[in-house]
Amino acid sequence: MKLQSYDELLRSKHRLSLMLFLFLNTATSLFYLYHNEENPPFLFTPPLLVIALLSVTILLWMLLRPGRKFPPLNIAAAITGLLWSWQIVFKYQLVFYYDSSFLIISLVSVFFISAIALGDHLLAFCLHIAPPTLAVLVLDRGENTLLLLFTIILPLTGFTLHHLMQQRRDRFTRRLVSQLYEEKQTYSDLSMLDPLTGLYNRRGLASRLKNILDNHAGSHFLLLLDIDHFKAYNDNYGHAMGDQALARVSVAIRDAVRSRDIVTRYGGEEFLVLLTNVNESIAMKLAERIRQYVQELSIPHLFNERVATHVTISAGFAPLHADDFDSALTNADRALYLAKNRGRNNILSHAAISQSDLSKTVDGP
Question: What is the model's pLDDT at position 210?
Protein backbone atom coordinates (compact mmCIF):
# COMPACT_ATOMS: atom_id res chain seq x y z
CA MET A 1 0.00 0.00 0.00
CA LYS A 2 1.31 3.44 -0.89
CA LEU A 3 0.69 6.59 1.12
CA GLN A 4 -1.62 7.71 -1.68
CA SER A 5 -3.66 4.53 -1.21
CA TYR A 6 -3.81 5.12 2.53
CA ASP A 7 -4.98 8.70 1.93
CA GLU A 8 -7.67 7.38 -0.40
CA LEU A 9 -8.77 5.00 2.34
CA LEU A 10 -9.03 7.91 4.78
CA ARG A 11 -11.05 9.93 2.25
CA SER A 12 -13.40 7.00 1.81
CA LYS A 13 -13.77 6.75 5.58
CA HIS A 14 -14.41 10.50 5.71
CA ARG A 15 -17.13 10.13 3.08
CA LEU A 16 -18.82 7.27 4.95
CA SER A 17 -18.74 9.31 8.17
CA LEU A 18 -20.51 12.18 6.40
CA MET A 19 -23.13 9.83 4.96
CA LEU A 20 -23.76 8.27 8.38
CA PHE A 21 -23.97 11.74 9.91
CA LEU A 22 -26.56 12.84 7.34
CA PHE A 23 -28.54 9.62 7.79
CA LEU A 24 -28.71 10.07 11.57
CA ASN A 25 -29.80 13.69 11.20
CA THR A 26 -32.48 12.61 8.75
CA ALA A 27 -33.72 9.78 10.98
CA THR A 28 -33.74 11.93 14.13
CA SER A 29 -35.51 14.86 12.51
CA LEU A 30 -38.13 12.61 10.90
CA PHE A 31 -38.71 10.86 14.22
CA TYR A 32 -39.35 14.17 15.98
CA LEU A 33 -41.61 15.30 13.14
CA TYR A 34 -43.69 12.14 13.42
CA HIS A 35 -43.59 11.49 17.17
CA ASN A 36 -44.86 14.69 18.72
CA GLU A 37 -47.31 14.96 21.60
CA GLU A 38 -48.12 18.57 20.81
CA ASN A 39 -51.07 19.78 18.75
CA PRO A 40 -50.87 19.35 14.94
CA PRO A 41 -49.93 22.99 14.30
CA PHE A 42 -46.69 22.38 16.17
CA LEU A 43 -45.93 19.11 14.36
CA PHE A 44 -43.91 20.40 11.39
CA THR A 45 -41.44 22.81 12.89
CA PRO A 46 -39.33 24.73 10.32
CA PRO A 47 -35.92 23.69 11.72
CA LEU A 48 -36.76 19.98 11.57
CA LEU A 49 -38.05 20.33 8.01
CA VAL A 50 -34.85 22.12 6.95
CA ILE A 51 -32.65 19.49 8.66
CA ALA A 52 -34.54 16.63 7.05
CA LEU A 53 -34.64 18.16 3.56
CA LEU A 54 -31.01 19.30 3.63
CA SER A 55 -29.72 15.95 4.93
CA VAL A 56 -31.77 13.90 2.46
CA THR A 57 -30.75 16.11 -0.47
CA ILE A 58 -27.02 15.88 0.25
CA LEU A 59 -27.25 12.16 1.03
CA LEU A 60 -29.02 11.40 -2.25
CA TRP A 61 -26.55 13.55 -4.17
CA MET A 62 -23.65 11.60 -2.68
CA LEU A 63 -25.31 8.25 -3.43
CA LEU A 64 -26.24 9.12 -7.01
CA ARG A 65 -22.91 10.80 -7.83
CA PRO A 66 -20.31 8.76 -5.94
CA GLY A 67 -17.41 10.09 -8.01
CA ARG A 68 -18.11 13.75 -7.32
CA LYS A 69 -16.43 15.75 -4.58
CA PHE A 70 -18.54 15.61 -1.41
CA PRO A 71 -19.26 18.56 0.93
CA PRO A 72 -16.76 19.14 3.77
CA LEU A 73 -17.77 17.32 6.93
CA ASN A 74 -16.91 20.30 9.14
CA ILE A 75 -19.24 22.62 7.23
CA ALA A 76 -22.07 20.09 7.28
CA ALA A 77 -21.57 19.62 11.03
CA ALA A 78 -21.59 23.37 11.70
CA ILE A 79 -24.75 23.98 9.62
CA THR A 80 -26.72 21.14 11.19
CA GLY A 81 -25.51 22.21 14.64
CA LEU A 82 -26.97 25.68 14.04
CA LEU A 83 -30.20 24.13 12.79
CA TRP A 84 -30.51 21.93 15.89
CA SER A 85 -29.93 24.95 18.13
CA TRP A 86 -32.68 26.73 16.20
CA GLN A 87 -34.95 23.72 16.76
CA ILE A 88 -34.24 23.73 20.52
CA VAL A 89 -34.95 27.46 20.85
CA PHE A 90 -38.00 27.28 18.57
CA LYS A 91 -39.51 24.31 20.44
CA TYR A 92 -38.65 25.71 23.87
CA GLN A 93 -40.61 28.86 23.09
CA LEU A 94 -43.71 26.71 22.54
CA VAL A 95 -43.52 25.24 26.05
CA PHE A 96 -45.68 27.23 28.49
CA TYR A 97 -43.78 26.12 31.60
CA TYR A 98 -40.07 25.54 32.38
CA ASP A 99 -39.08 22.00 31.43
CA SER A 100 -35.42 21.14 32.15
CA SER A 101 -35.88 17.58 30.89
CA PHE A 102 -36.60 18.89 27.40
CA LEU A 103 -33.27 20.73 27.32
CA ILE A 104 -31.33 17.72 28.59
CA ILE A 105 -33.03 15.33 26.16
CA SER A 106 -32.43 17.74 23.28
CA LEU A 107 -28.77 18.04 24.17
CA VAL A 108 -28.36 14.29 24.55
CA SER A 109 -29.98 13.77 21.14
CA VAL A 110 -27.44 16.05 19.49
CA PHE A 111 -24.60 14.33 21.34
CA PHE A 112 -26.00 10.96 20.24
CA ILE A 113 -25.69 11.91 16.56
CA SER A 114 -22.20 13.33 17.04
CA ALA A 115 -20.99 10.38 19.11
CA ILE A 116 -21.92 7.80 16.49
CA ALA A 117 -20.97 9.61 13.28
CA LEU A 118 -18.21 12.02 14.33
CA GLY A 119 -16.20 10.00 16.82
CA ASP A 120 -13.07 10.21 14.64
CA HIS A 121 -13.53 13.88 13.71
CA LEU A 122 -13.08 16.07 16.78
CA LEU A 123 -13.43 19.42 15.00
CA ALA A 124 -16.67 18.39 13.29
CA PHE A 125 -17.88 17.00 16.63
CA CYS A 126 -17.26 20.34 18.35
CA LEU A 127 -18.81 22.35 15.51
CA HIS A 128 -21.95 20.22 15.69
CA ILE A 129 -22.48 20.33 19.46
CA ALA A 130 -21.35 23.92 20.13
CA PRO A 131 -24.49 25.81 18.93
CA PRO A 132 -27.00 23.48 20.68
CA THR A 133 -24.85 23.50 23.84
CA LEU A 134 -24.81 27.30 23.99
CA ALA A 135 -28.56 27.41 23.30
CA VAL A 136 -29.30 24.96 26.13
CA LEU A 137 -27.05 26.76 28.62
CA VAL A 138 -28.72 30.09 27.84
CA LEU A 139 -32.26 28.68 28.01
CA ASP A 140 -31.51 26.84 31.27
CA ARG A 141 -30.79 30.16 33.00
CA GLY A 142 -28.49 28.48 35.54
CA GLU A 143 -31.08 26.06 36.94
CA ASN A 144 -29.19 22.86 36.05
CA THR A 145 -25.77 24.18 35.18
CA LEU A 146 -23.79 21.41 36.89
CA LEU A 147 -25.86 18.65 35.30
CA LEU A 148 -25.58 20.22 31.88
CA LEU A 149 -21.85 20.83 32.23
CA PHE A 150 -21.35 17.20 33.29
CA THR A 151 -23.43 16.07 30.28
CA ILE A 152 -21.25 18.22 28.01
CA ILE A 153 -17.76 17.90 29.48
CA LEU A 154 -17.69 14.14 30.05
CA PRO A 155 -18.32 13.07 26.42
CA LEU A 156 -16.25 15.98 25.10
CA THR A 157 -13.28 14.87 27.21
CA GLY A 158 -13.74 11.27 26.12
CA PHE A 159 -13.90 12.16 22.44
CA THR A 160 -10.87 14.46 22.75
CA LEU A 161 -8.80 11.63 24.22
CA HIS A 162 -10.14 9.27 21.56
CA HIS A 163 -9.21 11.75 18.86
CA LEU A 164 -5.66 12.11 20.21
CA MET A 165 -5.26 8.33 20.24
CA GLN A 166 -6.66 8.17 16.72
CA GLN A 167 -4.17 10.79 15.53
CA ARG A 168 -1.31 8.89 17.14
CA ARG A 169 -2.49 5.68 15.49
CA ASP A 170 -2.76 7.42 12.11
CA ARG A 171 0.78 8.82 12.41
CA PHE A 172 2.07 5.37 13.31
CA THR A 173 0.19 3.82 10.39
CA ARG A 174 1.57 6.43 7.99
CA ARG A 175 5.12 5.78 9.15
CA LEU A 176 4.57 2.04 8.87
CA VAL A 177 3.08 2.31 5.38
CA SER A 178 5.92 4.60 4.28
CA GLN A 179 8.54 2.25 5.71
CA LEU A 180 6.93 -0.80 4.13
CA TYR A 181 6.74 0.95 0.76
CA GLU A 182 10.41 1.97 0.95
CA GLU A 183 11.38 -1.61 1.81
CA LYS A 184 9.22 -2.88 -1.02
CA GLN A 185 10.96 -0.48 -3.40
CA THR A 186 14.35 -1.63 -2.10
CA TYR A 187 13.53 -5.29 -2.60
CA SER A 188 12.00 -4.52 -5.99
CA ASP A 189 15.19 -2.73 -7.03
CA LEU A 190 17.31 -5.60 -5.77
CA SER A 191 15.20 -8.10 -7.68
CA MET A 192 15.97 -6.17 -10.87
CA LEU A 193 19.75 -6.27 -10.35
CA ASP A 194 22.21 -9.05 -10.98
CA PRO A 195 23.87 -9.78 -7.59
CA LEU A 196 27.33 -10.52 -9.05
CA THR A 197 27.78 -7.57 -11.39
CA GLY A 198 25.31 -5.02 -10.04
CA LEU A 199 23.91 -4.59 -13.55
CA TYR A 200 20.26 -4.89 -14.48
CA ASN A 201 18.96 -8.40 -15.04
CA ARG A 202 16.26 -9.22 -17.59
CA ARG A 203 13.51 -8.05 -15.29
CA GLY A 204 15.29 -4.75 -14.73
CA LEU A 205 15.82 -4.37 -18.46
CA ALA A 206 12.11 -4.91 -19.14
CA SER A 207 11.22 -2.23 -16.59
CA ARG A 208 13.67 0.33 -17.95
CA LEU A 209 12.89 -0.54 -21.56
CA LYS A 210 9.22 0.34 -21.11
CA ASN A 211 10.16 3.70 -19.64
CA ILE A 212 12.67 4.41 -22.43
CA LEU A 213 10.25 3.54 -25.21
CA ASP A 214 7.42 5.56 -23.64
CA ASN A 215 9.38 8.72 -22.88
CA HIS A 216 12.36 8.92 -25.25
CA ALA A 217 12.02 9.62 -28.93
CA GLY A 218 14.79 9.00 -31.43
CA SER A 219 16.68 5.96 -32.67
CA HIS A 220 17.94 3.27 -30.30
CA PHE A 221 20.31 0.35 -30.82
CA LEU A 222 20.66 -3.00 -29.11
CA LEU A 223 24.21 -4.16 -28.48
CA LEU A 224 24.67 -7.83 -27.61
CA LEU A 225 28.10 -8.82 -26.22
CA ASP A 226 29.65 -12.14 -25.30
CA ILE A 227 32.97 -12.91 -23.59
CA ASP A 228 35.11 -14.98 -25.94
CA HIS A 229 36.09 -18.53 -24.89
CA PHE A 230 34.66 -17.97 -21.42
CA LYS A 231 34.12 -21.69 -20.77
CA ALA A 232 37.83 -22.29 -21.39
CA TYR A 233 38.66 -19.37 -19.06
CA ASN A 234 36.54 -20.94 -16.31
CA ASP A 235 38.04 -24.37 -16.87
CA ASN A 236 41.57 -22.96 -16.78
CA TYR A 237 41.32 -20.53 -13.84
CA GLY A 238 38.29 -21.75 -11.93
CA HIS A 239 34.83 -20.33 -11.35
CA ALA A 240 36.00 -17.83 -8.75
CA MET A 241 38.25 -16.24 -11.36
CA GLY A 242 35.39 -16.45 -13.84
CA ASP A 243 33.16 -14.48 -11.47
CA GLN A 244 35.90 -11.88 -11.03
CA ALA A 245 36.24 -11.59 -14.80
CA LEU A 246 32.48 -11.07 -15.17
CA ALA A 247 32.56 -8.33 -12.52
CA ARG A 248 35.55 -6.58 -14.15
CA VAL A 249 34.00 -6.78 -17.63
CA SER A 250 30.74 -5.35 -16.24
CA VAL A 251 32.58 -2.32 -14.88
CA ALA A 252 34.42 -1.85 -18.18
CA ILE A 253 31.16 -1.91 -20.15
CA ARG A 254 29.51 0.50 -17.75
CA ASP A 255 32.49 2.90 -17.97
CA ALA A 256 32.59 2.77 -21.76
CA VAL A 257 28.99 3.83 -22.41
CA ARG A 258 27.00 6.88 -21.38
CA SER A 259 25.05 7.20 -18.14
CA ARG A 260 21.72 7.09 -19.98
CA ASP A 261 22.50 3.77 -21.69
CA ILE A 262 21.09 0.62 -20.09
CA VAL A 263 23.61 -2.14 -19.35
CA THR A 264 22.25 -5.61 -18.57
CA ARG A 265 23.74 -8.95 -17.73
CA TYR A 266 21.56 -10.90 -20.12
CA GLY A 267 22.71 -14.36 -19.08
CA GLY A 268 25.93 -16.18 -18.21
CA GLU A 269 28.78 -14.36 -19.95
CA GLU A 270 26.40 -12.44 -22.24
CA PHE A 271 25.63 -8.74 -21.84
CA LEU A 272 23.11 -6.47 -23.51
CA VAL A 273 23.40 -2.70 -23.83
CA LEU A 274 20.52 -0.48 -24.91
CA LEU A 275 22.09 2.55 -26.60
CA THR A 276 19.55 5.37 -26.53
CA ASN A 277 19.19 8.24 -29.00
CA VAL A 278 22.11 7.30 -31.24
CA ASN A 279 22.72 6.68 -34.92
CA GLU A 280 24.61 3.69 -36.30
CA SER A 281 27.93 5.52 -36.41
CA ILE A 282 27.81 6.46 -32.72
CA ALA A 283 26.60 2.97 -31.83
CA MET A 284 29.64 1.49 -33.59
CA LYS A 285 31.98 3.90 -31.76
CA LEU A 286 30.51 3.00 -28.39
CA ALA A 287 30.71 -0.71 -29.17
CA GLU A 288 34.34 -0.36 -30.23
CA ARG A 289 35.11 1.58 -27.06
CA ILE A 290 33.65 -1.29 -25.01
CA ARG A 291 35.77 -3.80 -26.92
CA GLN A 292 38.93 -1.80 -26.25
CA TYR A 293 38.13 -1.26 -22.55
CA VAL A 294 37.61 -5.00 -22.07
CA GLN A 295 40.71 -5.95 -24.05
CA GLU A 296 42.83 -3.63 -21.89
CA LEU A 297 41.59 -5.18 -18.66
CA SER A 298 44.22 -6.82 -16.45
CA ILE A 299 42.44 -9.30 -14.23
CA PRO A 300 44.82 -10.39 -11.43
CA HIS A 301 45.09 -14.05 -10.61
CA LEU A 302 43.51 -14.95 -7.27
CA PHE A 303 46.66 -16.65 -5.98
CA ASN A 304 49.31 -14.58 -7.71
CA GLU A 305 48.61 -10.87 -8.18
CA ARG A 306 51.67 -10.48 -10.40
CA VAL A 307 50.03 -12.72 -12.98
CA ALA A 308 47.35 -10.95 -15.00
CA THR A 309 44.70 -12.62 -17.11
CA HIS A 310 42.90 -11.14 -20.09
CA VAL A 311 39.61 -11.64 -21.89
CA THR A 312 38.08 -10.29 -25.08
CA ILE A 313 34.53 -9.83 -26.24
CA SER A 314 32.61 -10.09 -29.49
CA ALA A 315 29.53 -7.99 -30.15
CA GLY A 316 26.71 -7.51 -32.58
CA PHE A 317 24.28 -4.64 -32.70
CA ALA A 318 21.07 -3.75 -34.50
CA PRO A 319 18.61 -0.84 -34.55
CA LEU A 320 15.43 -0.95 -32.50
CA HIS A 321 12.61 -0.23 -34.95
CA ALA A 322 9.00 0.49 -33.99
CA ASP A 323 9.65 -0.59 -30.39
CA ASP A 324 10.07 -4.18 -31.64
CA PHE A 325 12.58 -5.42 -29.07
CA ASP A 326 12.39 -9.09 -30.08
CA SER A 327 13.27 -8.39 -33.70
CA ALA A 328 16.16 -6.11 -32.72
CA LEU A 329 17.45 -8.77 -30.32
CA THR A 330 17.27 -11.44 -33.03
CA ASN A 331 19.18 -9.23 -35.45
CA ALA A 332 21.83 -8.33 -32.85
CA ASP A 333 22.22 -12.02 -32.00
CA ARG A 334 22.78 -12.86 -35.68
CA ALA A 335 25.43 -10.16 -35.92
CA LEU A 336 27.11 -11.49 -32.76
CA TYR A 337 27.09 -15.02 -34.17
CA LEU A 338 28.89 -13.87 -37.32
CA ALA A 339 31.32 -11.69 -35.32
CA LYS A 340 32.41 -14.79 -33.40
CA ASN A 341 32.71 -16.79 -36.62
CA ARG A 342 35.00 -14.10 -38.02
CA GLY A 343 37.62 -14.63 -35.36
CA ARG A 344 36.13 -13.14 -32.17
CA ASN A 345 37.26 -9.92 -30.47
CA ASN A 346 35.16 -8.32 -33.15
CA ILE A 347 32.22 -5.92 -33.56
CA LEU A 348 29.62 -6.35 -36.29
CA SER A 349 26.54 -4.36 -37.23
CA HIS A 350 23.49 -6.19 -38.49
CA ALA A 351 23.25 -3.68 -41.32
CA ALA A 352 26.71 -4.80 -42.53
CA ILE A 353 25.69 -8.45 -42.88
CA SER A 354 25.36 -9.63 -46.46
CA GLN A 355 22.44 -11.77 -47.59
CA SER A 356 24.65 -14.84 -47.84
CA ASP A 357 25.96 -14.30 -44.33
CA LEU A 358 22.44 -13.65 -43.10
CA SER A 359 21.23 -17.02 -44.40
CA LYS A 360 24.04 -18.75 -42.46
CA THR A 361 22.79 -17.33 -39.16
CA VAL A 362 19.26 -18.72 -39.48
CA ASP A 363 20.31 -22.01 -37.95
CA GLY A 364 22.85 -20.42 -35.60
CA PRO A 365 22.60 -20.26 -31.80
Answer: 80
